[in-house]
Write a structure and sequence with these properties.
Blueprint (H helix, E strand, L loop, with lengths): L6 E6 L5 H9 L3 E6 L4 E3 L4 E3 L2 H9 L3 E2 L7 H8 L5 E5 L7 H4 L6 E5 L11 H7 L4 E8 L9 E8 L6 H25 L31 H10 L6 E5 L2 E14 L7 E5 L2 E5 L4 E10 L5 E2 H7 L8 E2 L2
Parallel strand pairs: 1-2, 1-6, 2-5, 6-7
Antiparallel strand pairs: 3-4, 7-8, 8-9, 10-11, 10-16, 11-14, 12-13, 13-14, 14-15
Helix pairs in contact: 1-2, 1-6, 5-7
Length: 317
Amino acid sequence: MVGSALRIVYFGTPAFAVPTLRALLASRHTVVALVSQPDRARGRGQHVTPTPTKAVALEAGVPVLQPLKLREQAFLSSIATFEADLGVVAAYGRILPDALLAIPRLGMINVHGSLLPKYRGAAPVHRAVIAGESMTGITIMRVVTELDAGPMLATAMRPIGPDDTSVEVERDLAEIGARSLNEVVDRLAQGPVVETPQDDRLATFAPKLEKSESPIDWRQPARDIHNRVRGLQPWPMASTTIGDGRILIHRTQLTEDSVRADGGTIVAAHGEALSVAAGDGAVLRLLVIQPEGRRAMTAREFLSGHKLQPGMLLGRL
């Protein structure tokens, strides 16, 4: 039994939400409208550009709504006119009010970037990488009033490699989520789907990243610093200072070396080796770094233009 094609209103804003939108557009179901956050100025020139999902929707001829306030009656009425069977949410970026959740006939479901109930909140992928998790995944869940607490309709797993960045993990999860979501929508078109309640006792939270998290505390163990470098991408990026200059750190490598030195002490600075002692005495190699205001470069490129010596200290702003 195939079931009826569904009319879907899609809520999503950033690049993470694009694969799911494209998958729905290519399916037998109909995306009747996209709701995205307002366009914002980006880059050095502060040019206003369409959100990633808006660009895709406009290309497909899908109406786009970008409300400033979700509780305004004019917006709620406009959503109702689309007569959507189902709402799909993927990284929209705002809490949906009850009045909005009640409009689609089959309610709303969400593509969330973690294995719930772990990492509820705005930055599940980044927080999982920072915590050193070896496994994450996607959960398709029903949207309820409480943040990311609705019953689960499907899950899919994705290992996190020891050197994977949050950018790489999130990119893969976006594709996995698109496939999982499409399967759930097809099942919903046939009739009710089993929904598994979350165990709230196991819930952990993933608050949004803050710029204040960028500076590295070299007193921490090398593995914790390595995980922070991987998880704070593409923003705010892990950072440190050399002298009075700030650098962003894109890639690091754990080593088996150890030294007796204070955390943040440079222990090697030659050729391709820019190595720093962490708080536990383990040595961390800086592979790709970016002086503020310049492009990212390898350690060799950086050292060719900067005279660093063992014993120098990296600091915090």
